[in-house]
Structures are given as structure tokens and as C-alpha cells.
């Protein structure tokens, strides 16, 4: 199970930090990612971590503004979002490697097997 938190409403140029706690799943050694989705739109990959936890990958739209990280001791990944723009408004989903459809974020392919329930981010 993946549970996101940290979403909310923020002004343009502001920051938010999202968290995703995994239970029943060990993030260490697995590829993890954040996606976002607007109603009626396809889910878009935003940021990802390689299986070592050292390699990071980003969509061009968020490079230099967002940072993904993980804390293995807490079995949690984070998404630090800075310099937020109205177009960053979306529901953000945590995703974990599994046996599902492969999706590409930057140079990394992740077969996504698990999704969180999503957390809403609104920038205005």
C-alpha cells in the first residue's frame, strides 16, 4: 500500500513537499516514481528514482524545480516541489515498481505495479 500526503493549495512560486509511505512493500532496491494527472488527461510521469536510489529522472517540465528523494529507514519517498506554476496543478500519485505496464520518466522505464490514492496540488 502506498499513501501520499502533503498536497494542498499554494500560490504561484511557492513550494510543497509530498510524501509517500509504503507499507507491505520495500522501496529499497525498487524503482519508485511520482506521476500527476489532470481530469480528462493521461497520467504523466514527473520524477523517478532508480533501483539504487541514487539515480534520479525528471520530466522536462519540472527539471530544476522538483526533487525526488527517498528515506529507506522510513520506507518513504518524497517530492520537493519549488517554484510552482499553475500548470503544476494536478492530482499527484506515488508509484512503485511491479509487474504492470511500463512507463517512461526521463531515461528510466518503470513497470508500475502499485499506485497510491493520490493527493491534490493546486497552484493559483
Structural description of this entry:
The protein is built from no helices and 11 strands. It has 124 residues and is mostly beta strands. The strands form 2 sheets. Strands 2, 4, 5, 6, 9, 10 and 11 form a 7-stranded mixed sheet that branches. Strands 1-3-8-7 form a 4-stranded antiparallel sheet, with no helix packed on it. A hairpin with a 4-residue loop joins strand 7 and strand 8. It is globular, with a radius of gyration of 13 Å. The model has no long low-confidence stretch (mean pLDDT 96).
Keywords:
mainly beta, seven-stranded mixed sheet, four-stranded antiparallel sheet, globular
Strand content: over 45%
The best one-word shape is globular
Structural classification: mainly beta
Radius of gyration over all CA atoms, rounded: 13 Å
Q: What is the typical, i.e. mean, pLDDT?
A: 96
Beta strands, count: 11
Q: Could you give the order of the helices and strands?
A: EEEEEEEEEEE
SS field, number of helical segments: 0
> Gap between N and C termini, in Å?
31 Å
Estimated helix fraction: under 10%
Ranges with pLDDT <50 over ≥5 residues? Answer: none
Query: How many strands, what sense, and barrel or not for the largest sheet?
Result: 7 strands, mixed
Amino acid at each position: 500500500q502506498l499513501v501520499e500526503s502533503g498536497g494542498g493549495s499554494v500560490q504561484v512560486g511557492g513550494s510543497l513537499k509530498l510524501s509517500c509511505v509504503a507499507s507491505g512493500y520495500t522501496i529499497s532496491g525498487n524503482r519508485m516514481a511520482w506521476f500527476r494527472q489532470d481530469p480528462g488527461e493521461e497520467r504523466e510521469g514527473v520524477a523517478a528514482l532508480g533501483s539504487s536510489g541514487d539515480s534520479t529522472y525528471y520530466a522536462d517540465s519540472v527539471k530544476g524545480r522538483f526533487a525526488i528523494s527517498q528515506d529507506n529507514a522510513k520506507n518513504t519517498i518524497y517530492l520537493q516541489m519549488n517554484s510552482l506554476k499553475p500548470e503544476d496543478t494536478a492530482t499527484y500519485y506515488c508509484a512503485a515498481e511491479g509487474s504492470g505496464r511500463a512507463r517512461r520518466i526521463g531515461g528510466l522505464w518503470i513497470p508500475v505495479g502499485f499506485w497510491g490514492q493520490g493527493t491534490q496540488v493546486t497552484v493559483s
